[in-house]
Amino acid sequence: METIRVSKSGSGDYTSVQAAINSIPVGRTEETHLIIEAGVYKEKLQIHKPHLRLYGKGEVRLVYDDYALKLGSDGTPMGTNASCSTHITGDDIRVEHIIFENTAGPGSIVGQAVALYLDADQAVFRNCTFLAAQDTLYLAKPKEEKLNTSGRNYFEHCRIAGDVDFIFGSATAYFEECEIISLDRNMEINGFISAAATPEDKKAGFIFHKCRLISDAAADSVYLGRPWRDYARTVFIDCWMGGHIRREGWNDWGKSSVNDTVQYAEYGSVGPGAAPGERISWSKQLEQNMKDNFSLEAVFGGDIAWTR
Questions:
Q1: How many helices (H) and strands (E) does the chain have?
Q2: What keywords would UniProt list here (predicted)?
Q3: Does the pTM exceed 0.85?
């Protein structure tokens, strides 16, 4: 195991996070620990090496400000994926006490502006924060092939803030006791928390367990989710929901055909936004025995040692 220290003050091994990542030999199979000292690191990060452990010491912010409508070097808009502040594809990564942020601004002006793009397996984030507006947390592009490689992601005690489709993608992701913050756009529809693109052959997409859904937005103005792809699967288990959550809960994105293919469900929702009797007819309120199908162990097939 190697430990690398990053400090803007120059007291560490490197002053930039990317330089520290680049120093790791290609093909290393042992863990590398990066200790990142407090500071704002304005870097467009590419993290493609596996077996990393990133630990923030104090308030560490990984920040950039690209956005989908920004023109790239070829004169065309860079698009959603290229807008990300941090791009991770290295498997077996653990991240703790780090803020990922895209400061480009509201989607009405800049379009999508991703804080973190993550397409990796066995990725764990603890006590991290993800800040942006439209499309904050991008959990892997849709995989259109039948057999896919969408990864397994685990988020524990994290804060995720955004407005339109701000948790989206094709991964199987489990959110444990996270704070989900919907920003106020001062619009009749302030946004959509999730936009899953779950592949057809996956049994689980996004699972929110004991999370708190909060917002300053108007009552009845935010949807729990809408389907980016036809087999979107999103489930809320024992979550507290603020009054900003719309009574019907879910939106079909104008594609009525998905009413028979998506899996949108809840169990044990509480708070002013919990309205089990008013949800759309094609979502489900789970029974106790069905709830157990969405435990951490069930979602990851019993293979949960990597989440610890």
A1: 5, 24
A2: Aspartyl esterase, Hydrolase
A3: yes
